Amino acid sequence: MGDRPTCVFGCDVFDRRAMRERLPREVYARLLEVMEGTGKLDEAIAGVIASAMKEWAVSRGATHYAHWFHPRNEMTAEKHMAFLTVDGDGTPLESFSAFELIQGEPDASSFPCGSVRSTFEARGYTAWDPSSPAFVVRSERGGTLCVPSVFIAFDGTPLDMKTPLLRALSALEGRALRISRLFGNRGVRWIKMTCGAEQEFFLIDSDRARRRPDILHCGRTLIGAEPPKGQQMEDHYFGSIHHRALGYMEEVEEELLRLGVAVKTRHNEVAPCQFEFAPQHCEANLACDQNQVMMLTMRRLAHRHGLRLLLHEKPFANLNGSGKHVNFSLVDSEGRNLLSPSSNPRRNVQFLTYLAAFVLGLWEHGGLLRAATACPGNTHRLGGHEAPPVIMSIYLGEVITRVLDRIDEEIDQIGGRRPMDLGLNRLPSIRADNTDRNRTAPIAFTGNKLEFRSPGSSQSIAGPLTMLAAIWARGLDWIGDRMEARIASGMEPKDAALEAVREAVRVARGVIFEGNCYSPEWEAEARRRGLLVAKGPTEALSRLIARENVELLSSLKVMSPGECETFCQTRLEQHVKWTRIEMGVMRSMLLEGVLPALKRSAALEAEALSAFRAAGLSPKGDPLEALLGDLEAVRDGVRGLEGSMEDLKAQPDLFEACRASEECVEVMNRIREAVDRAEEACPWDLWPYPRYRELLSLG
């Protein structure tokens, strides 16, 4: 790396520093109001901002601009438009108007949208999101100014992931501010959700990856026998980073620095060739954009190092999968982390209030979090090899759980006849990191934040963040209503809060689990407690249209009932389409590679056996019979696969098609068992695809 990180950080971002330097003072002040949600953008100042943004972008090498948005395919999209225009006299000019900054019109016909529109209804609009700064992505011949935007249909229906996220964040932040005001914090102007998403990924040699159709087209191995040495020795975790991976990670970090993304941590993960980046936390909407920027940068730079980036949740069977641990909290305008325990008893009451609100929301609407993480790759990851199970529960740690339980106990004892001990001096002091971490829990309190471990590594964090914010807003509403009623009757705010926390814990106690979430007993216990156990994507995604969840999202103005329906449809379609792709790739790999290899192997084995017998030798067993058995099993697998593909194609209803796709995945898993047995028996030089032991080595 050349320049010091502090010298290049954010140089390709039109951030507050660049705005302050290039915008008139009054325009900058009004833009800040818009960014903080206290003002509204008008076209008069937008023209000044557009001109300054264009001049800044051109100075950074940009020749084009694009409204950069998040369609419902977990990716990002952009339509590049040139700054260059030619007037009537043929004079070349560089222009970027207020209208071009505020609004764009990409063709919306081919983006996932459920049943909200027909293919011929192509018009869609992008609209600038001022709360996330524009940035320049450089290329070999210039660069593109990317303007973060929302994406809506002609009638205003959202077609993206960002619009629901912004709505959910607004709902959460307003309700968190209400609680703060009930505690008498009049000086707090705003409360923001903050986030940091740990990004796990695999790196493999690109030449070997190119010889694997499943990796190229599906991002994971559809066949492949387990190697003799996988992750049994646990020697990769936090080990010395291979020089090829380190060179790649350093270049990614250097480019992310220029784009304003501060990567705080890099290290080896558990599985061979698995790694992790962890960024510094920032406001949730910006964190979502930055995570997408990180994935785009990682994809773009991998080929320079002869590497293939795998963001699939389960690229290799029987090895750890890759997640995206979403760490989140709330921070107020005074810089206080509202999930940070304090030595100040008053602050601790507020901490417990915000925490209990989330627990309550999780208890009532945990199905939304399960639905938000039901991406195709997570079907193979959740519940195995250190991935959290599909049951949404929360781990708070022994100390905080005991505090909550004893609050309940003490309030029962006093019965309102004596003043509550506002100092909580008979309860254990709460401080950061006073308990061990539970890596088996989907959600855990980790000292001064909550960590949601279920999202998949390929996912946009917009979906999980939307649902996290929505259920938290619901819990804050519940507690806020009870606090207001008690305060109105003359109770002190701290007393009212503790009463509400006590009630919330009583209602939601079943979602708090301090044990081993991997244990077989936990599933039965979770069902007994009334928790959702949605193992397949069909059942998980059905929670998006469950009555109580639709009512929540619509009441918070996050999604209308129709938007919930279409969002569910796009997710169901995603699973069905991915299954069809994987089945087609597996079929071609078996027909074009595996079966010919097994036939050649059988012919060589038959020839060798004839030579043995001609020499009067009789080998023990019959290796040819075993090989022919494998060959026939694979042939049967192809026939079964083709039958399943036809059955899936014939399903008219999306829910039925998704259920059928789950059955198809089981068919593919059974076929894989036969293929992997055959791989182990097939000579090295005849097997058509690089094996695990080759793929899982950067040497």
From TrEMBL:
GO MF annotations, alphabetized: glutamine synthetase activity
Lineage: superkingdom: Bacteria
GO biological process: glutamine biosynthetic process
Domain GS beta-grasp, chain residue ranges per copy: 63-156
SUPFAM superfamilies registered for this protein in UniProt: Glutamine synthetase/guanido kinase (SSF55931)
Entries under Pfam families matching the protein: Gln-synt_C, Gln-synt_C-ter, GSIII_N
All residue ranges annotated as the GS catalytic domain in the record: 161-594
Similarity remark: Belongs to the glutamine synthetase family.
The protein's name: Glutamine synthetase catalytic region
Annotated source species: Thermanaerovibrio acidaminovorans (strain ATCC 49978 / DSM 6589 / Su883) (Selenomonas acidaminovorans)
Organismal lineage: Bacteria, Thermotogati, Synergistota, Synergistia, Synergistales
